[in-house]
Design goal:
Elements lengths: L1 E5 L2 E3 L5 E8 L7 E7 L6 E6 L6 E3 L7 E6 L4 E6 L8 E9 L2 E4 L3 E5 L2
Parallel strand pairs: 2-11
Antiparallel strand pairs: 1-3, 3-8, 4-5, 4-9, 5-6, 7-8, 9-10, 9-11
Length: 115
């Protein structure tokens, strides 16, 4: 079982990044997918969530209107499109999947928003 995030990096305020979460070793299409983030010295927080089929999404108030979560079950990959990035978005971003009590975490990808 693997969840591998990619797409993080350094971006200027107002810029964009697209994170990817590549899944393998399990039936990705059965799983709810979420993105969490954790900034230094802070607790991990839920950023966005999407149902297994992609029909329903949830966003934290802090990212609503700027971030978009999506998934391509045919490619076993989930995404987080992040626009209008702010310095306070700086964190390690983690992909998480869950299905009937079974869950997996990715290793995280660093996003730094700074001029």
């Amino acid at each position: 079982v693997q969840l591998v995030e990619s797409g993080g990096g350094l971006v200027q305020p107002g810029g964009s990044l697209r994170l990817s979460c590549a899944a393998s070793g399990f039936t990705f299409s059965n799983y709810v997918m979420r993105w969490y983030r954790q900034a230094p010295g802070q607790e991990r927080e839920l950023v966005a969530s999407i149902t297994s089929g992609g029909s329903s999404t949830y966003y934290a108030d802090s990212v609503k209107g700027r971030f978009t979560i999506s998934r391509d079950n045919a490619k076993n990959t989930g995404y987080l499109q992040m626009n209008s990035l702010k310095p306070e978005d700086t964190a390690v971003y983690y992909c998480y999947v869950m299905y009937i009590g079974t869950y997996y975490w990715g290793q995280g990808t660093q996003v730094t928003v700074s001029s």
